[in-house]
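Just wondering, can you check both lines?
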Amino acid sequence: MTIEFNNFTFRYDALVNPTLKGINLTINKGEKVLIVGPSGSGKSTLGQCINGLIPHSIEGESSGSLLINGLEAKTMKLVQFTEQVGTVLQDTDSQFVGLSVGEDIAFALENQRMSVAEMYPLVKSTARMVEMETLLNHAPQDLSGGQKQRVSLAGILVDDVDILLFDEPLAALDPKTGKRTIEIIDQLHRETDKTVIIIEHRLEDVLTKHVDRVILMDGGQIVADMEPNDMMMSGLLEKHGIREPLYFSALKHAGCQLKAEDKPAYLEQMDINTFAPTVQAWHSTYAKQDVPEAGDTLLTLENITYSYDGEKNALEDISFSVRRGEIVSVLGKNGSGKSTLTKLIMGVIDPDAGKITFGNDNFADLSIYERSKKVGVVMQNPNHMICHHMIMDEVAFGFVIKV
């Protein structure tokens, strides 16, 4: 199953300038490629051309050619794309079609008119692969962001397609679950010889397993197409706004002389002992920075408990405080209650027990508008925040809103 772009250009109807410009790219059957690039580089647009959302769901003007297994994409029907390309989208909410996790995973099989007797064990085994077998009867919309991503992943794993396209599959996953997801993708690639395309920012996480090529995009064009170790040594990642793996940046900062032969793309394959003396010498000269003292207590949560269904607590007896000027990180695996905590502080939901105070104000006595004057929130999914068509109107909205 070969994908071939020949001088391909695409412009969205709503834009003046093209998003993809003169793309020349061939992805051969059985390859596993990683597409990276800064936000707005055209990565997701490229993926939407491969899975048929462009032109069937997204309107625009294109030139050049895109061939999928020898067929010109412009002449293909949407059903031909879905029979060949399985996609996990960045926005998982837009991908759900079932009322439960089990129904959503089974959707593709139902379209194939598979019997329930055949379908049930396949759905259950697929759910087990992504560690969702205990949540088959839950509604996808009630899950955490990482759990939603795993449901979407399971939904394409049950379908027998030749191309697996992952559009930022790690975006909402905790490190452990993200590592497991990459392991699942790698296992699928090795056992099925499917063509795998991963669009992702988190280069370090994807490269815990082998990748044939890394394709770097910027400004709607392909800047480089290299083997991972060569890409790491090229300097192009940093130049085009892609964060290099932390261990790689640390080794460079310590003064280690790295080469492509050291296999810097894969930490587990590197001979770390070679660089240990240089790193230790650098560490001994490192001066610890003074941390400024935090101010008065600003936000306090006292014995907070909350349950969505009245049976199982999403949060139980949570207490902590945040002082003025502090930077506080809340860590936890998917489903641990991080997003629920945010909703409580925002005022979208109210605690079943406990109290939230900001300075001398009890948040229970304040409206959401009054809270918004004290706490600003950036949500996990920006689509849940944007309410205007133009950027100017969106940014100015906070100045004109009245309650």
About this structure: The chain has a mean pLDDT of 88. The two ends are 56 Å apart (CA to CA). The chain has 15 helices and 14 strands.
